[in-house]
Specification:
two-stranded antiparallel ribbon, single chain, 5 helices, 2 domains, 7 strands
Length: about 170
């Protein structure tokens, strides 16, 4: 049987066929296994990055808790940046603190993996989350989520403004 080459050009079985006019089945089988493994690994890596708990390479989000001042200051800067239009938001939890209702959101983007507690005053588009106290919504994409930042008594708070839709 012929050699199995792992370089990218040789693993094209059609090119091998054209050159040799014979398809080496062992070669094809090995190439296909390598491709399937590579695709599986790539998909696994992408899915773990999309909605994972990584830091997105920002040391502030790695070293500080989501409620700390430095974390919230950095997240405010990120949310105000032009790249914020490419962020994705996923629902994580429904929380009531001090008689205020919040949704906990995971925010992902280029070089960003962060969490935020977002105060909700207008539940019109989030009524299902409120009614079920978040049950059944964990991981749902909050498409077009708009968050405002308010500062009250020296404390910064993220506040829900609007949402296009919830995507399960």
């Amino acid at each position: 049987m012929g050699k199995v080459h792992l370089s990218g050009a040789c693993c094209n079985w059609l090119a091998c066929y054209k050159v040799k006019n014979v398809v080496n089945l062992r070669h094809l089988s090995n190439c296909m296994n390598i491709r399937v493994t590579a695709v599986f690994v790539s998909i696994s890596m992408l899915s773990s990055c999309e909605n994972g708990n990584g830091s997105g390479n920002n040391p502030i989000f790695e070293k500080h808790s989501p409620g700390s001042k430095i974390y919230m200051d950095e997240l405010t800067v990120e949310l105000a940046s032009p790249k914020a239009s490419g962020f994705t938001y996923h629902f994580n939890n429904y929380v009531v603190m001090n008689r205020k209702e919040y949704i906990e959101v995971e925010i992902s983007g280029p070089e960003l993996e962060a969490e935020a507690s977002v105060l909700v005053r207008n539940w019109q588009k989030l009524e299902g989350i409120r009614r079920t106290k978040g049950m059944g919504y964990r991981g749902a994409k909050l498409k077009g989520l708009k968050i405002d930042v308010e500062e009250v008594g020296g404390k910064r708070e993220f506040v829900y403004e609007d949402l296009d839709k919830i995507v399960d």
